[in-house]
Design a protein that fits this description.
alpha+beta; Immunoglobulin-like; TIM Barrel; 4 domains; ten-stranded antiparallel beta sheet; nine-stranded parallel beta sheet; 14 helices; 50 strands; 18% helix; globular; binds alpha-D-glucopyranose; Alpha-glucosidase; Gal_mutarotase_sf_dom; glycosidase; carbohydrate binding
């Protein structure tokens, strides 16, 4: 543990005296093919407009030529420079104008000022805000005292990151995650700034260590420990537009297989074939729905990846087939560390074909992890990605469709917790040190895994879960937030963490329900299951040598509540699936902080303990022990208590009744969403009922075969529904926006009227309309 020595006065020396070189003044502007290249006193800077409202900034220190190759995380579609730019020049500045933005580039000293077409200021650099010391490149921009910051991926603390310091360096943190810990497993150097109606986003594309210091009242400072300064500036009218642009730039998630959005059960570890069978049988006997069981490291032979333990799991194919017949998928863990053992084929192949990370001088880097001394694949090389991907063949033949990638920061049992920063990565012929590429390691391992699975799974959708990642991880994997603890504080913290991940492009995220380390208890597990049931990734996982955490571990009272909410997950599955599809096309997160939908309401700006599922279901989890009520903030509008049907006017806080079996939930009047009957796993076809909460509103319901990529060729349905209230009638109408998948030709609606009445109707899809009395 750290002592007071950590804060002794002479530890943090002043930076005065350190040589700081700035970009200086513009000497010349060169324009080639929509790239604006500014030759400055001490640097070159390129500006490129990818769209009217999205530009790239790249700096090269000194006189070096600027390398304008995009990094691997930028989507191909985004690389085309589409925007028309009009350039003009005054004595003081150049002006670059698109159909959405005006970027004024000050000549002396070089600095940017971004406004909209009406001259409203969006962002303004500090004078001499671009510079560097021997160690760091630094960028400072002005900010307002009341500016809000969101995003930054997987971070501790509250929703709004104003006044905070964030650091990007993927780190395996087993110690309790507290606000002071600013580096966790994922690094997403992207944020959204909002102030009044002004909103913009900034993506710093740098996989080395970077820091964002928002603590100053007048400016924020971004520091890069390696690499050249390169960022993308995203402007738009709303947070939604920024997230949509950010995911245009870095990619959107594919639609997951439906089973991956059901309930998942994990433990470090279910250690034997028998234990796994008993677990599965228990779920079915107790009729607690479950789609997935995880195998943590004990299934392997001395933790050698891609092996099975000969006595613990003597017949994996048989086990997997039996579980599959009972509706379970099995997801095994795969870590990057390959045991150093010349008798082990994967290690031998890796050495022979030069797949492992090495020092410049040629020696293979090794570090200690679960299997002992291990080598680490160099995922920066496409060939190594392909080699690793192909290694999943055995799993796939055994019927496995999902893989859990862990320890891929990479985590190593040493003082720095990771690989030596001087190890080299081949990087497909552009060698760089580990220090420069560290935050790409987990991303590229997940890419290798996802692509390897996809290639071999005959048109079925793979599922990958990862601990580490970087911008773009959403294209390959769901993310869980690592080793949390069974603390109420960690349940609290998981909510803003997952919400900010959604704002950072990672729509498919969740925390270990019940808490990983430390002993859980019935009440905590029940409350955590309630919250988890409405968060995108829903897995109960717990560590070795601590209290068991299966739904039935704490007696019947708790089991009943836990079962009820796992069942609720399945009731909401058709809606969740629809929202996942929306995330795949628009990049918008499934779960949203209230500020995302109600930005004009200042009460939402740092609301960290409640969230919206989609745009109209408000979830307010209980995150403290021994309470049976809580304050819930309802934004303006009419809301209906999901449990009681009571109509509540928003624009104020209400006190919700929340005995142990109640998770406070409110539905916005006008909402429509699809629900299903309770099933034991997602493979069972559900009967769909549209819940219609009287008012004006619309919904797009999505369905397909749930497991293959056939939807990419049109095998899906999209049903557009709309409700209008007028005088004494409620008119519900629908049209098939796309029809490519065979499904029920009748539709069932449960209409929740303003006076508390509900009525249910089943009608022919072909009818297209239903008119009811209010
Ligand atoms: C790491 C993971 C955890 C896993 C354990 C053993 O701590 O974060 O989820 O159970 O390793 O594999």
């Amino acid at each position: 543990m750290e002592g007071s020595e950590m804060i002794k006065p002479d530890l943090h020396k002043s930076e005065t005296g350190v040589e700081y070189i700035t970009v200086g003044d513009i000497r010349d502007l060169q324009q080639t093919d929509r790239t604006y290249l500014f030759h400055c006193t001490h640097a070159r800077v390129a500006l490129q407009f990818l769209t009217d409202s999205l530009f790239r900034f790249k700096l090269s220190r000194g006189k070096h030529a600027l390398d304008l190759t995009h990094s691997r995380v930028i989507e191909l579609a985004a690389r085309d420079l589409q925007a028309e730019v009009a350039v003009s020049e005054t004595e003081q500045a150049y002006e670059l104008r698109t159909a959405a933005l005006v970027v004024t580039v000050n000549k002396s000293p070089f600095a940017l000022r971004v406004t909209d077409l009406h001259g409203n200021l969006i962002s303004e650099d500090e004078a001499n805000g671009y510079g560097w010391t021997k160690e760091h490149t630094i960028f400072t921009t002005k900010k307002a005292q009341d500016e809000n910051f969101y995003g930054f991926g997987e971070k501790t603390g509250h929703l709004n990151k104003k006044g905070s310091l964030q650091s990007m360096w993927n780190t395996d943190i087993y110690a309790p995650h507290v606000p002071e810990i600013v580096e966790l497993y994922q690094s997403i150097p992207f944020f959204i700034s909002t102030k009044g109606t002004n909103v913009y986003g900034l993506f710093l594309d740098n996989p080395g260590k970077t820091e964002f210091d928002m603590t100053d009242t007048k400016r924020y400072k971004i520091t890069c420990h390696s690499g050249e300064l390169e960022y993308y500036f995203l402007s738009g009218a709303s947070m939604k537009e920024i997230v949509s642009q950010y995911t245009f730039l870095t990619g959107r998630m594919p639609i997951p297989p439906k089973w991956a959005i059901g309930y998942h059960q994990s433990r470090y570890s279910y250690e034997t074939d028998l234990e796994v069978r008993e677990l599965a049988a228990n779920f079915r006997a107790k009729e607690i729905p479950c789609d997935v069981i995880y195998l943590d490291i004990h299934y392997m032979d001395e933790y050698r990846v891609f092996t099975w333990h000969p006595t613990r799991f003597p017949q994996p194919d048989k086990l997997l087939a039996d579980l599959r017949a009972d509706g379970f998928r099995v997801v095994p863990i795969v870590d990057p560390g390959v045991k150093k053992d010349p008798k082990y084929l994967i290690y031998r192949e890796g050495v022979t074909h030069e797949h492992f990370c090495k020092y410049l001088e040629g020696e293979t880097y090794t570090g200690e992890v679960w299997p002992g001394v291990s080598a680490f694949p160099d995922f920066t090389n496409t060939q190594t990605q392909q080699w690793w991907g192909a290694k999943h063949e055995g799993f796939i033949k055994s019927g496995i469709e999902g893989i859990w990638n862990d320890m891929n920061e990479p985590a190593i049992f040493n003082e720095t917790k990771t690989m030596d920063v001087n190890v080299m990565h081949g990087n497909d012929g552009d060698p760089k040190t580990h220090g420069e590429l560290h935050n790409h390691y987990g991303l590229l391992m997940s890419k290798a895994t996802y692509e390897g699975l996809k290639e071999q799974m005959d048109g079925k959708r793979p599922f990958v879960l990862t601990r580490a990642g970087y911008s773009g991880i959403q294209k390959y994997a769901a993310v869980w937030t690592g080793d949390n603890r069974s603390f109420w504080e960690h349940l609290q913290m998981s909510i803003p963490m997952i919400l900010n991940m959604g704002l950072s492009g990672v729509a498919f995220a969740g925390a270990d329900v019940g808490g990983f380390a430390h002993h859980s208890n019935g009440e905590l597990l029940a409350r955590w299951t309630q919250a988890g049931a409405f968060l995108p990734y829903f897995r109960n996982h717990s560590a070795t040598r601590i209290a068991r955490q299966e739904p039935w571990s704490y007696g019947e009272t708790y089991e009943a509540v836990i079962k009820k909410y796992i069942e609720m997950r399945y009731v909401f599955l058709p809606h969740l699936y629809t929202l996942f599809r929306e995330a795949s096309v628009s990049g918008l997160p499934l779960v949203r902080p209230l500020v995302f939908e109600y930005p004009q309401d200042p009460k939402t700006h740092n609301l960290s303990d409640q969230f919206l599922l989609g745009d109209s279901i408000l979830i307010a989890p209980i995150t403290q022990p021994d309470i049976d009520y809580r304050a819930v903030y309802l934004p303006a509008g009419t809301w209906i208590d999901y449990h009681t049907g009571e109509v509540v006017e928003g624009g104020r806080a209400v006190v919700a009744d929340a005995p142990l079996d109640v998770l406070p939930m409110y539905v916005k009047a006008g909402a429509i969403f699809a629900t299903g009957n309770v099933v034991q796993h997602s493979g069972v076809q559900q009967d769909i009922t549209f819940q219609v909460y009287a008012g004006n509103g619309s919904y797009e319901f999505y369905e397909d075969d749930a497991v293959t990529f056939a939807y990419e060729n049109g095998a899906y349905n999209l049903l557009r529904l709309e409700q209008r209230v007028e005088g004494s009638t409620l008119t519900l109408s629908w049209t098939e926006a796309h029809s490519g998948y065979d499904s029920a030709d009748q539709l069932t609606f449960t209409v929740h009227h303003e006076d508390g009445r509900t009525e249910t109707h089943t009608v022919a899809k072909a009818d297209g309309q239903l008119v009811l009395n209010r």
